[in-house]
Queue: 3 jobs
Job 1
Amino acid sequence: MTAAAPPAPPAACAPPPAPAAARSLTPVSKVLRLCLHALFLGLLALAAGRAVADSAPRAGWVVAACALLGVRFAAGVRAPAVHRSQRAGALWLAGLGAAWAGLLAVSPDGLWIAFPLYFLELHLLRLRWGVAAVAVTACAAIGGFLAHSSAVTPGAFLGPLLGGAVAVATVLGYQALYRESERRRELIEELITTRAELAAAERGAGILAERERLAREIHDTLAQGLSSIQLLLRAAERALPEGAPALAHIAQAREAAQDNLAEARRFVRALTPPDLEHGSLAAALERLCAGVPGPRVRFSLSGRPRVLPTPYEVALLRIAQSALANVVRHARAGRAEITLTFMDASVTLDIVDDGDGFDPSSSAPGPGAGSGSADGGFGLPAMRSRAETLGGLFTVESGPGQGTAVAVTLPLPLEHLEHTEPVEAL
């Protein structure tokens, strides 16, 4: 009886998933694995059936060898250690190969089993050892075919070799697709996580912006109106003669206005940004300097510290944060210094660095303490807008290679000058 060359690989018999994917098989992976099992057992049944149908001289030995090989295969498939340990998998393959060699010795149809063996070897062994095992299996299949055939044909060599090459190419292609799929899955998970973090950051930024807006509105409308009412009531007291009946009512009105002004100021402080919740502006700037990565940043305080209106503290803190962010990202500076100066009628913030500097007259400023950044961070227009909104003066001095100096001067409102207290008294 002359044996034919190994059959062409069926389209449904793609390789099983790589060992890394064995822990979480997809439906496609499960179908591919079942196809491999069905192919192996079907070829065994075909070999045993042909031996019985053709009344081969050693039909009993063929059936016994097929049964032994099938039992060995089923035991390995159901053994968890074979899938978890490469050593256990290699031992199982060695036993499977010995049983297959017995079948190959008694029947030329046994060489058909070489094709599913290729996939098992590539699945359970490392790539180089799997390829070597495929080569040995192909040589054994060729030898078994020549042992049972009196005629040497090209198909005796091409069949097993082409089958091995197809198996190796299919497994490598599947593994490449699996790795690409894993990279895409990780990228999707990263994008989902990043989107959630971005949404949380946007919500947080929106909350902070709304807090600042409410604080500014309360300060600029309610608090300023109550302060003006106090000034008018004080002027009315001075205009009335001593002992006038209206003085008592004016005193009560002033007390009510004072209480409501204090309540409005408490609302403003409750809406203060987190950086200013646990201390004064000077303390917040000092913490900001201590936490800057890269250049050495020093903070200094000049003049007698006093309590500033919340919009002033917020504006000065945000300008300092923006300027330092640009120093770290773009200026390539070794040192920077922030100076907060309290004067009789104004407060000044200076941010100086020894970085690359830029031309302030350029329409596209380069990196520096006050420059804009390409990634959309705070730049000159944003800081200038904050200062000018409060009636302040914003100046920039810089030059290529000369560092950058940013100065912000905010005039204090008259009612604040009349009723302000030093920070230490709070």
Job 2
Amino acid sequence: MENVLRPLIVVGGSVLLTLVIGWATDLLLRRADGRQSDTPLWGLLRRGRVPYQLLLCAALLRGSYDEAQLFQDHRVGIGRTLTVVLIGSAAWLVIRIAAAVVETSYTRYASSRAQRDPARVRRVRTQVTLIMRVVSAVVGVVAVAAMLLTFPAFRAAGASLLASAGILGIVAGVAAQSTLSNMFAGFQIAFGDMVRIGDTVVVDGEWGTVEEITLTYLTVRTWDERRITMPVSYFTSKPFENWSRGTPQMTGVVYWQLDHSAPVDEMRDKLRDILRECPAWDGRAYDLSVTDTTPNTMEVRALMTAKDADDVWTVRVTVRERMIGWLVREHPYALPRVNTADALLPPHRPPAPRRSPDGFPNRRAVETPRADRG
């Protein structure tokens, strides 16, 4: 009877104690989250409930397994399994706690500077994202190494692995040269403030917004909802346009090819009226000028400003559409025309005198015929 009750009490008590401690901890976190609603830390820490309870259960079972005297023939294997679960759950919990602390710090920073310095907020967000990825990778590697060290075979092979670490490092460095260059490029982007999450960029002729930055690749979401994924080393080795660098304010340009009789002064006044009715125009500046001419048309350029790339696109399409409509209604003669009339010939000129082979004018060729004389 004792052999049956003892394992049941040890295992059941460990699981029950884990559930009670987990429930009590979660209750305290919920109450703290309700009292301090200005910080999301306590609510974010609740995401670690599962690894926390798994850690408690593994620790209790690992500490009380010898007292249970259960499966004595497999005691070593079960003990190592519980140790591996303990290490894995501890690493999982550390990552969740670090993520909660970092996200809370970023949320406070963003809420205080979002209106004054949005560019710096995006920069910090990019850095925080990459830092969390590095922390997760480091904790994961340490956890895997600790798990492997629980097995004697790996401990015995450790000396030979360390002895060949130099050669393996050289081989791995050569084989992973591209990966390592992308990784260092990711750090350079994060802390060099070259490009940030949320920036509007133009790469290879594609306009879009940076959606994700990792240590090895970067994703750009284009205006038509496509995703372009490219290595981060591209942004450290090739030129690209960053429309959000510094200030997001932009100047838009619209061109028209019109007839030479187009009313430029009236178009300038109409541009002013269109911009005043367009909410996307920020009111900083506008202009309309003739920038080029051809034998059939002239090029008219309009400039207008906006607070960011999205608004400057809206202003451009609005000005282009409304100006063309106004010209069609009020000044149709200003639109480019195709000439269909016959070309005018130059006035008649007498033929040039023909020259003799010696270079002197041929007198017979320019003489008036005898019938016309007198």
Job 3
Amino acid sequence: MRIQIRAAAIRGIDRLIDDLGGDGAGLLAEFGVRPGDLDSDHGLLPAVTAGRILRSATTRLDCPDFGLRLAASQDMSMLGPLAVAVGNCDTVGDGLDCASRFLFVHNQGLRLSRGPDPERYAGVGAVEYRLVHPDVPFEPQSMDAGLGLLHRNLITMSGGYELLGVYLPHPPLTDESVYTEFFGAPVRFDTDQALLRVPAKLFAQPMSAPVNPELRRMVVEYLESHYVDPREGAAASVRSSVGRALGTVPVRIDLVAKWLHMHPRMLQRRLADEGTSFQGILDEVRKHAAYRLLTTTDIPFSQIASLVELAGQAALTRAVRRWFGRTPTQVRRDARETHQPPGVTQR
């Protein structure tokens, strides 16, 4: 299986190569990549190719700390919409959890998590950076770049924090003092994990910049509706597909199966194995869409019925009574008074 990552992961590499006396555009062209591909939040690149580009640049420029230099030239914006969601979380810990949840949008072969200190000191935690896909070979320069950027992003999120130590799962690629100067903390090499050791209180620290909860909610909803974690099953893929299509094209199992490159009967069997069905998922997506339209807009009920693919206002009324035990008018009125949806868990 070929793992794709966002081309933005190596954004700025062409300029860095130029600054070091090489030909950035020329090197990228050898791998079928244009500099403009890296500036897009939607361009994709095989993870193996990204690693090869870093390795080639390191060799040709005789620059063993190339990964750290690339990290120093980047910022959180290379995460695209995910950067907006993370940057508008309330605390640094919330931001890390958000990044962990949606990092697959940026790179399916990475996992990010916070956990206990491997050295078991009281009041100390860790942020672990893991490569998890066997089809992506380990590339030390990519690891340096990734962990280095994580450190820089934590500085941005917190406004400055005390890094207690760094674990890297490979030997030093250059003089150890280069690593110590970059991270400003002791670095251990050839470890079993890649992580940053941090004060546990960092996770509760408020974000350094003002946050916009509504913007965060909007971006998280966008990420939820447009991307499916590859670790999830068929039901999650169908739910995402139905959510995108509802109100724009007729939602049928044969159409969704085609999008998922699967025969409809195979899709039905996989959904049954997961304890659900296409009609059950469609009903669930309609329920949440109808609630959102009833409580956050003044759209007429007949139009809402059309947007959730129900045959008129009477059908909407019957469905809403079944979902929430109330009429559309009552749901609209009561939810605005209490801000709590009957029978729906808000995200």
